Amino acid sequence: MSGKAKPFATPLTAAEQIDFQGKIPSWVIEAANILREHGKAVYLVGGAVRDLLWGEIPSDWDLATDALPEEVEGIFSKTLPTGKRFGTITVEAAGHQLQITTLREDLGYSDGRRPDQVSFGSDIVNDLARRDFTINAVAYDFSRRLLIDPFGGRKDCRRRIIRSVGDPALRFREDGLRMFRFYRLLAVHDLKPERKTEKAIDPELAKSISYERIRDEFSKLLLGKAVREGLNGLAKSGLLTKIIPEFFPPDRTQSGLYSYLRGHSFAAAAAIRPSLHLRLAALLHDIAKPVSMTVTDTGVHFYGHDQKGAELSGEILKRLRYPGRLIAKVSLLIRWHMFFYQPNISDAAVRRLIAKVGGENIPDLLELRRADIIATGRISSETMEYWKELSERIRAFLQPGAEMKKAYQLAVNGHDLIKRLGLNPGPLIGEIIAHLSEQILEEPDLNREELLLNLAQKYLESKLR
Ligand code: ATP
Ligand code: MG
Questions:
Q1: Which of 92, 94, 166, 307 is the S-S candidate for 78 at Cβ 3.0 to 4.6 Å?
Q2: For position 204, what pLDDT does the model report?
Q3: Phi-psi bin for 238: left (phi > 0), alpha (psi -120 to 50), beta?
Q4: pTM for the whole thing?
C-alpha cells in the first residue's frame, strides 16, 4: 500500500471532564508541568489512560506533546534518544523513566511493519487515530483535565471489548503485529473480541513480521490471566500456525488427536503459575505426543514423548529466538515431566529423581505435574494426595542439613582418588566417581571421605578379580 492511510474521513472528537490528577504520580505531573511552562501541549496517552479508566495502576507512563524531539531534549536535562526517528525521547525524572513522544501521524505503510514516514506536529486526534485499538486510543489532557476519546475507547473499556480503531482489515494490513497484539491484550486484560475486528485477522499478513516481535507479544499473552482464551483465539484465527505449527496436524487424518493436544496444553498453561518458563513448559510438555504415538495390541502409547518433547520444544523455542537459558530450563522440565511416583517408592528412588533433575528444579517440576493433573481433568483426591506427599518428602530431603544435601556433593573428588589411592588420571577416575555417587544416593551416610576411599578401593579390587 502506498500513500497516506486514512482510516477515517473525519474523526469525531468527544471530550469529557475527568480528573486523574490524584491518580498520576507526582513525577509524571511534574514532567507535564515542565512542558506546559514551555508553552507546549501535553497529554497522557496509551496504556496508562486505559489502565486508569479501569482503576488499575499503569506499568508505564507515556506522554504526547507538540514539542519536537529536539525541543524535548532541550527542555529536560537527562534524556535518551530511544526512538527519536519516530519522535520518542526517554526522559529520566526523579529516578523514573518516562517516554515523551511528539504528536504524530503515520504516513503510509508499504512493508506491513513500520510507517514509511511520520509527520510531527499534528493534533491529538490524528495521533490517537494511528493507534491500534480503541481502548488504547484515549488521551488525558493535563491542562484542561479532559478525557479525549474520539473512538469510543471509554465505552469499550467499560464493556471490556477490544476493537480496532477504524477499518480492521486496513489496520492489520498496515501492521500485521497488531493481530498478535489483539490476542495479547485480550489475554492480559481479559477482554471480549469485537466480532468484526477478529474476523479481519488474516495469518497471511503475519509474513513480514519478525519472530522476535511476535515472540514478545506471545510471551506477554502467556502471562495473561485469560491465557486460555488468548491461545484459543490464536489457534482459531490461524495465527498460531505462524508461531507453533507443531500444534496442527500435517494432514486431516489426525485432527482429533491434535485438537485434544491443544485443549490439554492450553488448559495446562492456564493452570500453572504465571512465570514464563513454567507457562512455556506447560504449553509444550506434550508437544511430541503425536509424533511419538504407537498403536500396539495393548493400546495407544506415547513412549518417549518426554524425551522427544524436550528436543522438539528446544527447536521451537530456538526458532522463536528465546534465550538459551530459558530454553534449557523448559526442555529439562519437559524431559522429566513423566517422573514416576507412588507413595510406596523408596527414599533412594526419590533421591535419584532429585539427583537427576537437580534440587533447584524440583519445585518447578512439581508445579508442572500439578498443572498437568488439573488439565487432564482427572483430579481425584488420591492424585492430589500423592502430589502433596511427594512434595513433602522432597522438601524434607532438600532442607538445609538434610540427607539430600549430604548426597549432593561427594566428599571426595578425582584429585583425592589419584593422591590417596595412587591412581593415574584417566577414565577410570570418572568411573569410580559415578560408582560412588550411585552408592550415596542409596545410602547418604556413606558420604564421608574415609568410607568413600574404602569403597573406591573395594571397587578397584572387584574390577581386578
Ligand atoms: P503495556 O501495558 O503492555 O505497556 P500498552 O498498551 O502501553 O501496554 P505498548 O506496547 O507499550 O502497549 O504501546 C503503547 C501504545 O502505543 C499503545 O497503547 C498503543 O496506543 C500504541 N501502539 C503500540 N503498538 C502499536 C501498533 N503496532 N500499532 C498501533 N499502535 C500501537
Ligand atoms: Mg506501554
A1: 92
A2: 97
A3: left
A4: 0.85
**Of the residues 136, 167, 190, which should be mutated to test ligand 1's pocket, given the most ligand atoms within 8 Å of the CB?**
136
The residue nearest atom 17 of ligand 1, judged by CA position, is 46
Range of lowest pLDDT (87-96, 358-367, 406-415)? 406-415
In a domain, 2, yes or no: no
Coil, strand, or helix at residue 140?
A: strand
Q: State the total domains in the chain.
A: 4
Ligand of minimum distance to the alpha carbon of 188: 1
CATH number of the CATH domain containing 363: 1.10.3210
Q: Which ligand is the nearest neighbour of the Cα of 58?
A: 1
**Pair (342, 454) in one structural domain:** no
Give buried/exposed letters for 245-266 (b at 16+ CB in 10 A, else e). ebbbeeeeeeeeebeebbebbb
pLDDT at 19 over 70: yes
C-alpha 46 – ligand 1 centre gap (Å)? 6
Q: Residues 291-318: pLDDT tens digits? A: 999 999 888 899 999 999 999 999 999 9
Protein residues whose CB sits closer than 6 Å to any atom of ligand 1: 46-47, 59-60, 62, 131-132, 136, 175, 177-178, 181
CB 67 within 8 A of CB 75: yes
